[in-house]
TrEMBL record, chain A:
UniProt family annotation: Belongs to the peptidase T1A family.
Any one of the GO BP annotations: ubiquitin-dependent protein catabolic process
UniProt cross-references to NCBIfam families, sorted A to Z: PRK03996.1 (NF003075)
Name of the protein this chain belongs to: Proteasome subunit alpha type
Main location (coarse class): cytoplasm
Subunit structure: The 26S proteasome consists of a 20S proteasome core and two 19S regulatory subunits.
Proteasome alpha-type subunits domain ranges (all copies): 5-27
Domain of life: Eukaryota
PROSITE patterns named among the record's database cross-references: PROTEASOME_ALPHA_1, PROTEASOME_ALPHA_2
Keywords: Cytoplasm, Nucleus, Proteasome
Compartments where located: Cytoplasm; Nucleus
From TrEMBL, chain B:
Alphabetical list of PROSITE patterns matching this protein: PROTEASOME_BETA_1 (PS00854), PROTEASOME_BETA_2 (PS51476)
Keyword DNA damage in record: no
Phylogenetic classification of the source organism: Eukaryota, Fungi, Fungi incertae sedis, Mucoromycota, Glomeromycotina
Cell compartments where the protein resides: Cytoplasm; Nucleus
Record-given protein name: Proteasome subunit beta
Family assignment from sequence similarity: Belongs to the peptidase T1B family.
Keywords recorded for this protein, A-Z: Cytoplasm, Nucleus, Proteasome
Quaternary state and interactors: The 26S proteasome consists of a 20S proteasome core and two 19S regulatory subunits. The 20S proteasome core is composed of 28 subunits that are arranged in four stacked rings, resulting in a barrel-shaped structure. The two end rings are each formed by seven alpha subunits, and the two central rings are each formed by seven beta subunits. The catalytic chamber with the active sites is on the inside of the barrel. Component of the proteasome complex.
Length: 233, 206
């Protein structure tokens, strides 16, 4: 008697596609650009800041969020879907600490987020999350910087540098051309800014950068610092 | 089932004390983990840092204490991460009290006695809360849990004043500990003493 609500809204097409997931990826492609770059001892996230309307308070529009002291995340796509996923991830970070007395590893929390995204491609009455995420951080007592990406299908993988959202293809090509191993802190920030400037209207005002180092200090670069990098570039 | 309003004696042998001063809270707890006549460990830390400026000291039913304290600790941290600002001492105490009140009305209540000490960074004031397993909560200038409280409260009444400095508070807590060593039948050998102030939580010696 339950009828059509039993069926997963994500069903296979005759040629093996999951159209709902592919449409979700389209939604991601419409979202503002986000870039992640891994350096030698740091990892940087950069996001394109959508121009804030005159009467809007810019402080309440945050696209780079902390999941725990040592994990940071940026996303591209439907902001509201991101809010739900971020909340789930934050609870999982604390729950993990409670049960095993250890902070999450970056791979673990990425796997968790990707798992949630996958569940929503195989459940009844729900649609996939319309966001891809870039997750950065350092595992406890480890100096290796980590960068992971998830997408609406629930796939996740580690990257040296990646971009998601609007014009991500252009940015990724730029990164492929200009990335090299063992980037210093300044070089990593510069690369992130330059790659974003490929697609964002020029101006430090439209970019937000977060830098994370092994001691898990997350620094949101101020507009002035970004200007300096901008001019130096 | 009848609520057990009489505190079992095992739990009363533990001692917690908190003293607020001008711009800090001094807390101390004994470091022995004992059951009946055996001392299993004498270096136990009976506290959990809830966040940078808030600490919770616990005593009571073993197992219940750590489970409950860590549960509160994780939820307080979650609030901090979610909202980008740490929970104030008053909010942390209110949350904790409500959890205990709910637990009391469940099948197996947590039997815990708590002191929540914190420094409110928004108002620059120290706070201390006395909370017990029945969900009673009181904000107080100084407090203690356990049989030891019967010996120390009068000393605190006599010598405490609102503008007490850290050095004076150290002397005061030493007075209380010395009183216990003289008059309390249980030999509480060692104490972990901590200070919570603007700079966070740190352990000190007196």
């Amino acid at each position: 008697m339950a009828g059509s609500y039993d069926r997963a809204l994500t069903v296979f097409s005759p040629d093996g596609h999951l159209f709902q997931v592919e449409y979700a990826l389209e939604a991601v492609r419409k979202g503002t650009c986000a870039v992640g770059v891994r350096g030698n001892d740091c990892v940087v996230l950069g996001v394109e800041k959508k121009s804030v309307l005159k009467l809007q308070d810019p402080r309440t529009v945050r696209k780079i969020v902390m999941l725990d002291d040592h994990v940071c995340m940026a996303f591209a796509g439907l902001n509201a879907d991101a809010r739900v996923l971020v909340n789930k991830a934050r609870i999982e970070c604390q729950s993990h600490r409670l049960t095993v007395e250890d902070p999450v590893t970056i791979e673990y929390i990425t796997r968790y987020i990707a798992g949630v995204q996958q569940k929503y491609t195989q459940s009844g009455g729900v649609r996939p999350f319309g966001i891809s995420t870039l997750i950065i951080g350092f595992d406890a007592n480890d100096k290796t910087p980590r960068l992971y990406q998830t997408d609406p299908s629930g796939i996740y993988s580690a990257w040296k540098a990646n971009a998601i959202g609007r014009s991500s293809k252009t940015v990724r090509e730029f990164l492929e051309k200009n990335y090299k191993e063992g980037l210093t802190k300044d070089e990593t920030i510069k690369l992130t800014v330059k790659s974003l400037l490929e697609v964002v209207q020029t101006g430090a005002k439209n970019i937000e950068i977060a830098l994370m180092t092994a001691d898990s200090v997350i620094k949101n670069l101020e507009v002035e610092e970004l200007q300096l990098v901008n001019d130096g570039a | 089932d009848v609520i057990n309003l009489f505190q079992p004696s095992d739990q009363e042998m533990e001692f917690l004390i908190g003293i607020t001063g001008k711009d800090f809270v001094l807390t101390a707890a004994d470091t022995s983990a004992a059951r009946s006549i055996t001392v299993m460990k004498s270096t136990e830390d009976k506290s959990r840092d809830l966040n940078k400026h808030n600490i919770m000291l616990y005593s009571g039913e073993s197992g219940d204490t750590v489970t409950f304290a860590e549960y509160i600790q994780r939820n307080v941290r979650l609030y901090g991460i979610r909202n980008g600002i740490e929970l104030t001492p008053k909010a942390a105490a209110t949350f904790t009290r409500k959890e205990l009140a709910t637990s009391l009305r469940s099948r197996h209540p947590y039997t815990v006695f708590l002191l929540i000490a914190g420094y409110d960074i928004t108002t620059s004031k120290p706070h201390l809360y006395w909370i017990d397993y029945l969900g009673s909560s009181a904000e107080v200038p100084f407090a203690a849990h356990g049989y030891g409280s019967y010996y120390c409260m009068s000393i605190l009444d006599r010598y405490h004043h609102p503008d007490i400095t850290l050095d004076e508070a150290k002397v005061l807590v030493k007075k209380c500990i010395d009183e216990l060593k003289t008059r309390f039948v249980i030999n509480l050998l060692d104490f972990k003493i901590k200070v919570t102030d603007q700079d966070g939580i740190r352990e000190i010696t007196i």
